[in-house]
Amino acid sequence: MENNLDASKVLVIDDEQSLRDGAERILTRMDFLVEKASRGDEGLETLKTYPASIVLLDMKMPGMDGMEVLKLIMEMNRGILVIVITGFATVETAIEAMKHGAYDFIPKPYEPDQLRIVVNRARERIQLKLDTEKLEKERLRTLSDLHTEQSRVHTIIESLPNGVLVTNTEGQVVLINPAFCQHMGLEAGIEPGRQIEEYVSNEKFCELVMDISKGKYIDYDDIPSHELGVSVGKYLIARARPVLGEKRECLGAVVNLADISAMKALDQLKSEFIAKVSHELRSPLSTIHEQIAMVIKDISGEIPEDDQHILARAQEKTMGLITTISDLLDLSRLEAGIGARNPQNVQVEKLLKSIVDFMDARIKAKNLTLTLEISEDQLAPVLADPMSLESVYGNLISNSINYTPEGGEIKVTADMSGNNLRVIVKDNGFGIDAKYTDKIFERFYRVKNNKTRFITGTGLGLPIVKEIVDSLDGFIDVDSEVNKGTSFTVILPTEKSKSFKGIM
Ligand code: ADP
């Protein structure tokens, strides 16, 4: 209320004591606090310290007349509701008073009920005014809270070391922070408003952001991230997620961009170290392995059976170590991009036959049946490094031999799936529990149970396979059931499917 008038306070200004007292009685019963004044100037003086919201004002008083007092009250505070009390003959005065801002009038003499009705009306009006003022205050506070909150969030986003970019459902950029511009080499303070492709040049990533913006990824937990190389030695990782409204409707996408150059450099150092150590270990280990083989061959008849067994175990262990080291070297080579250095058109049909031939001894030793089914249709060649492809199919077939018990069956099929080449390696072996099917592609991960415990391996075969398949823009999937068998499917683009972009 204006100048904090008090809705419960009334001032009665009247020169007649009986009327003042009468009014006071009625108003007190109506739960008002009442002050009285017998003259205009006295009333004005009271109002300076007594914040009455309603004034009952007699128009006809000795000294300063009512109209004059009214004008001065209005000057003092227009929020005060002045009810003028006038004699019968002075209706014009009442009208005049209303013109000067009086709220209502009561003809004199009045009945108590008349006073109650008029004062009640004034009270309701004051209450309404109070409520409106309260609402307005709350509205202003909410707006100012919102404004403070918005500017706080804005300042935080502006100060983040990570890049942040937000798009609307059309893929139009609506927010871009300085770190984003700096990481991407965009001019500082570049305005939002244009399509995402104008800020990020990586086509695949922009496609993903568009799809997310349009709501295609609302229920995805695992949206792929993208590495963006902007300059030599600088690596960025961009992750995008949908922005959801209250009803989980998609409002656009938010992109977070982080500099991972230091992590990459460390990773590279680690790979180089592993490659170096593996390389240094491989030759002496191979020598030891060969020497043990020679000892076994030359003197096997001359030493006791127990010692022969020890030598055989030593030979097995050195072989295991050599395999681990070879796998580590393969991985390092892949990480360094060497696997992609020698791409040629590879006829997978021939490659599969030679791998199966190579594994023949192991297949026979376990009494397994391996059938190779090549589709009648011409298989399109795959543009890849032949060694890498051999590694992919070789690892899968080798695993199916390892993890299928004696007498089991393995089936390798190759055909075209549209313009892509599909190879399936299926066995009826031990199978893999569904909870491990993602994990087996992680480095060094091996499923350990009663059946697999005694099978030697490194846990690096499938990570190598996945790395190669990914580098060829291909796709690998596993379908398995414990004690029923496992089926790995590898789909690779061929020269016929130039624009193959993996299967999402
Ligand atoms: P390794 O065979 O050297 O242990 P891999 O990375 O090739 O390493 O495989 C990881 C794990 O996946 C294996 O330890 C095994 O438990 C499981 N696995 C792979 N292929 C098969 C298969 N065909 N049948 C059952 N389990 C398999």
Summarize the structure in words.
The protein is of the alpha/beta class and 504 residues long. It folds into four domains: 6-135, Response regulator (Rossmann fold), CATH 3.40.50; 139-259, Beta-Lactamase; 261-328; 337-504, Heat Shock Protein 90, CATH 3.30.565. It is built from 13 helices and 17 strands. The strands form four sheets. A five-stranded parallel β-sheet has the order 2-1-3-4-5, with helices on both faces. Strand 14 (409-417) and strand 15 (420-427) form a beta hairpin. Residues 499-504 have low confidence and may be disordered. The structure holds adenosine-5'-diphosphate. Adenosine-5'-diphosphate binds at residues 395, 399-400, 403, 427, 429-432, 440, 445-447, 452, 457-462, 486.
Secondary structural class? alpha/beta
Looking at the structure, what is the overall shape? rod-shaped
- The CATH H-level superfamily of the largest domain is Histidine kinase-like ATPase, C-terminal domain
Query: If you average the pLDDT, what whole number results?
Result: 88
Physical arrangement of strands within the biggest beta sheet: 2-1-3-4-5
Spell the H/E element sequence. EHEHEHEHEHEEHHEEEHHEHHEEHEEHEE
* Bound small-molecule species: adenosine-5'-diphosphate
Question: Main sheet?
Answer: 5 strands, parallel
| Strand elements, count | 17
Fraction of helical residues:
40-55%
Stated plainly, the CATH topology of the largest domain is called Heat Shock Protein 90
